[in-house]
Design a protein that fits this description.
single chain; 17% strand; Rossmann fold; globular; binds adenosine-5'-diphosphate; alpha/beta; 44% helix; 8 strands; binds magnesium ion; eight-stranded mixed beta sheet
């Protein structure tokens, strides 16, 4: 059975896509059959996996509105080896179209069901909003991974996301739980970051992943080569952290 995880945070630029792409590549390298679903019309996870978003015949948009099945739209990441359900600007229109469709918040869940046996892990890269697209991600998932920077305002944004997850759990998806908070772009020289990090550990205890992803320029350079950082430079500190995170995820799913 595929374990489905949403990588979500309604803030932009917090490391969602970087986390999805690198976790997908690291899981695939560890022998886990992995699918990355790009739910962001910006298509950054698609491009970062080495797939040209401008050349797609079919994309996640077609799957969500019922014009294609997953196997007609998925592609394999040439650099990462995992599968990708890619996205591009077409997806921006889906928001409006979905509203008129039956089971509008369950479209992704329904589309994944028939291919459950193909994967060990499915990772969903959510857009920076709590929109119908993110809702489709949350309704399809067993759990949420929340990447966050250890900044003062990060905690404030977190309560909105946690409330949304609680509402989805109560009304739409009883399976949904927070798997954990992942500290990303971490700079240990910053006292404030250390303080926020300690606060997170106090407050959320074992919901905070042990792996910490440092700020690392190699992770930021990798997408321009169409490669996950863990493939582009596997010796870099950032890549090592994402590989440790993948190991932690493989352990964690055994306890779910
Ligand atoms: P989101 O998907 O939440 O908008 P991204 O993953 O696209 O965030 O990250 C935002 C920017 O920060 C990107 O340019 C990305 O390359 C960069 N970035 C992400 N994680 C790191 C990191 N650990 N170290 C350095 N740069 C990073
Ligand atoms: Mg993104």
């Amino acid at each position: 059975m595929a374990r489905i995880f949403c990588v979500a945070n309604q803030k932009g630029g917090v490391g969602k896509t970087t986390t999805c792409v690198n976790l997908a590549a690291a899981l695939q390298q560890a022998g886990q059959r992995t699918l990355l679903v790009d739910l962001d019309p910006q298509g950054n996870a698609t491009m970062g996996s080495g797939i040209d978003k401008r050349a797609l015949q079919k994309s996640v948009y077609h799957v969500l509105v019922g014009l294609a099945t997953l196997d007609q739209a998925r592609a394999s990441s040439p650099s990462g080896g995992y599968d990708v359900l890619p996205a591009n600007r077409d997806l921006a229109g889906a928001e409006v179209e979905l509203v008129a469709l039956e089971r509008r918040e369950n479209r992704l869940r329904d589309a994944l069901k028939a291919f459950d046996a193909d994967y060990d892990f499915v990772l969903v890269d959510c857009p920076p909003s709590l929109s119908m697209l993110t809702l489709n991600g949350l309704c399809a998932a067993h759990g949420v991974i929340i990447p966050m920077q250890c900044e003062y305002y990060a905690l404030e944004g977190l309560s909105d996301l946690v409330n949304t997850i609680k509402k989805v759990h109560a009304n739409l998806n009883r399976d949904l739980k927070i798997i954990g908070l992942l500290r990303v772009m971490f700079d240990p020289r910053m006292t404030l970051q250390q303080q926020v990090s300690a606060q997170l550990e106090n407050h959320f205890a074992d919901k905070v992943f042990r792996a910490i992803v440092p700020r690392n320029v190699r992770l930021a350079e990798a997408p321009s080569h169409g490669m996950p950082g863990v493939i582009f430079d596997k010796a870099a500190k950032g890549a090592q952290a994402y590989m440790a995170f993948a190991t932690e995820m493989i352990e964690r799913v055994k306890t779910l």
